[in-house]
Structures are given as structure tokens and as C-alpha cells.
Amino acid sequence: MDSLAGVLIYQEDRQRAAAEAAAARAEAARIRAALEQEG
């Protein structure tokens, strides 16, 4: 997603894409932590 952010034309689109990528990484980390606790 980070590489895609560099291709987008408008600054706000790049900022939004970066924020969405960061949120997705945080959510993935939360899910991994939850799965590790269950295991």
C-alpha cells in the first residue's frame, strides 16, 4: 500500500492511503497478538 501511495496524484489521497495502510497494519498486529494469546 505504501508504494501505491506514491503513485496517487493528490496530496490528500496520499495522506488518506498512508493513514489507511497504518490502520491496517495496526489491526493486523492486534489480530496477531490476539491469536498468539489464544494459542
Structure description:
By secondary structure, the protein is mainly alpha-helical. The protein has one domain. Helix content is 87%, strand content 0%. The protein is rod-shaped. 0% of the residues are buried. The mean pLDDT is 87.
Key words describing this protein structure:
2 helices; rod-shaped; mainly alpha
Q: What is the number of beta strands?
A: 0
Rounded to an integer, what's the Rg over CA atoms? Answer: 14 Å
Proportion of strand residues: under 5%
**What share of residues is helical?**
over 70%
Unreliable stretches, pLDDT < 50, 5 or more residues? none
Oligomeric form = single chain
Amino- and carboxy-terminal Cα gap: 29 Å
Total number of helical segments? 2
Which structural class best describes the helix and strand composition? mainly alpha
Largest β sheet strand count, sense and barrel closure:
none
The string of secondary-structure elements, in order, is HH
Shape annotation:
rod-shaped
Short description:
With 39 residues, the chain is mainly alpha-helical.
Topology:
Layout: H1 2-7, H2 11-38
